[in-house]
Write a structure and sequence with these properties.
single chain; alpha/beta; 10 helices; 52% helix; 12% strand
């Protein structure tokens, strides 16, 4: 079934959330959940289907070889990143395996959500027209590339070159902002400022009587 044509529950409000690595997207997602949203986290779904025994792993190994699986049978993410950076076709081949499974699980979670507000946390939302079609509003969390680099290096201990390589693989800030119905600016580390932006947006999009 095409998710964009699904029989969505009456009155459900669906928000697509995206942002570059280190932008603070996950923090904003947690704040929206605190306001009452149900979160559909596509990264979490991707980790689930590529864990040991995950539904996608047989196809991934068949496509890329046993070297992309670690000793437990899960996807070796470091190895996969190396392949993606060295082989221009690897990213598309991996996405062709993962994206249909992620989309189906995300749809199931959205249709069974206990809240009337569903937030789809989708790193690749900008690049995917079908994700935009299933969302009534698009929210982008934005900050400069320099801030992204600093945050990811601090939390993950990645070298700067690796962080910049990941940023280069993602949609540009300009492309993300071009599809946004709203942008949350997260240049500083002030949680209070971030919470205030999220609260204003929640009132605007998800308040009583609001129809998206």
């Amino acid at each position: 079934m095409d998710p964009a044509l699904s029989p969505w529950p009456a009155g459900q409000r669906r928000i697509g959330l995206t942002g570059g690595i280190g932008s603070g997207k996950s923090t904003v997602a947690a704040m929206l959940v605190a306001h009452g949203a149900t979160l559909v986290d596509t990264d979490a779904i991707a980790r689930e289907i590529t864990a040991p025994g995950g539904a996608a792993m047989p196809a991934v190994v068949a496509e890329f070889g046993a070297a992309v699986a670690d000793a437990d049978g899960a996807l070796d993410r470091a190895r996969m990143r190396e392949l993606v950076f060295s082989d221009p076709t690897a990213k598309q081949r991996l996405e062709a395996i993962l994206h249909p499974a992620i989309g189906a699980q995300a749809l199931h979670q959205a249709l069974s959500a206990p809240s009337d507000v569903v937030v789809f946390d989708v790193p690749l939302l900008t690049e995917s027209s079908h994700w935009r079609a299933r969302c009534q509003r698009i929210l982008v969390v934005d900050c400069s590339a320099e801030v992204q680099v600093q945050r990811v290096m601090a939390r993950s201990a990645w070298p700067e070159a690796q962080v910049r390589a990941v940023i280069a693989q993602q949609a540009t800030r300009e492309r993300r902002r071009a599809i946004a119905d709203a942008v949350i600016h997260n240049e500083t580390a002030s949680l209070a400022r971030l919470q205030a932006q999220v609260a204003r947006l929640w009132a605007l999009w998800c308040g009583p009587g609001v129809v998206l």
